[in-house]
Design brief:
This protein is mainly beta and 337 residues long. Helix content is 12%, strand content 40%.
Length: 337
């Protein structure tokens, strides 16, 4: 896409959260492809310092600045759909409420096989409580936020890919010192553990985990969507869909691929850096909300639904999904088709 040095220079600019190869949009019209740069808040040029202005081109790639707000894990929210996806179902379909015994609630994505075992695939932060879970922990349907108790156990945590963060004693200490100095001089700006402060962060490609299912507790069908019939990649400009706990079945537009960004993973403001992701615009409708994490992201083909990603984060304006082939490789699974 662009060089490491160019990326570092962009991350030093105020509000920059991420970037990826995708669609350029001018006055609501798609004008081509280039480098989509996402920011917390898009400001007029006269409110930006010269060093914070994003150039029109980066290494010969035309740029487009897109406002996305703060990107966070989408763990739980009040339900927003007519069908009650927060109830207890046996067997349960993909797209209802589920969660590790110590979290709130998320969404089951799809079924797979792992070394001969039938497993459920969702996010690390849904099934493994952001690395805090232990192998064998109970997975409940519905999730605890929706009334799930230990007697609602449908699976046990089997494996998760750890999420790496910048949260180390050194980074915490430096950030606290910077914030103390900012407060002392009357500045309202506060630093987080992010690329804009430290320049380098450990990379993550996935937020995913698997749980071993109890017998006959799960149905591979995506609620109100149907069955997955294949696995595929996706391009900018393609339409995608998902079936999730909170917003049900929704449709969105892939704005960028090879996308990288900083994601706030908890209320304390800890940050993880994700690369090689899919950026989905909330068009023609809001694509996701908290509680939809773990949803399978699919595209419609002439033969049926093709699985392309695993939804894990977002904001009021965009959704982020792991590329499905990264999930398959790192979890060592075969998707049930």
């Amino acid at each position: 896409m662009i060089s490491k040095e160019a990326k570092k220079a962009l991350y030093k600019k105020k509000n920059v959260l991420g970037m990826g190869r995708g669609l350029l949009v001018r006055k609501g019209q798609i004008t081509g492809e280039g480098l989509v740069i996402t920011v917390r808040k898009k400001l007029p040029l006269d409110q930006l310092k010269p060093q914070d202005v994003v150039p029109r081109e980066v290494e010969s790639m035309p740029t487009d600045v897109m406002e996305v707000g703060d990107i966070t894990f989408l763990e739980v929210a009040e339900k927003l759909v007519a069908i009650d996806r927060t109830k207890r179902y046996r067997p349960f379909k993909m797209g209802v409420s589920i969660g590790h015994k110590d979290i709130t609630a998320g969404t089951p994505g799809f079924l797979a096989h792992h070394k001969g075992e039938l497993v459920l695939v969702s996010c690390n932060h849904v099934l493994a409580n952001v690395n805090k879970g232990k192998i064998g922990d109970a997975i409940l349907q519905p999730g605890p936020y929706d009334g799930g108790k230990l007697e609602d156990k449908v699976a046990e945590l089997l494996k998760f890919v750890p999420i790496k963060t910048a949260d180390c004693p050194y980074s915490r200490a430096v950030t606290h010192i910077l914030n103390f100095l900012a407060q002392a001089v009357g500045s309202k700006f506060r630093f987080k553990y992010g690329i804009e402060v430290f320049g380098e962060m450990p990379e993550n490609k996935v937020d995913c985990a698997i749980a071993k299912l109890r017998n006959n507790t799960a149905d591979p069908e995506l609620l109100e969507l149907g069955h997955i019939i294949s696995v595929d990649t996706v391009k900018p400009g393609e339409s995608v869909m998902k079936s999730g706990r909170t917003t049900g079945v929704t449709e969105g537009l892939v704005r960028a691929v090879d996308y990288e960004c900083q994601v706030q993973i908890d209320k304390e403001g800890h940050i993880a850096y994700f690369v090689d992701q899919i950026l989905i615009d909330h068009k023609p409708q809001k694509f996701s909300a908290p509680g939809d994490s773990g949803s399978a992201v699919v595209k419609e083909t002439k033969n049926g639904l093709s699985l392309i990603g695993l939804l894990f984060a977002g904001s009021d304006k965009v959704t982020i999904a792991n590329k499905i082939f990264n999930v398959i490789q790192l979890l060592e699974i075969e998707v049930v088709i």
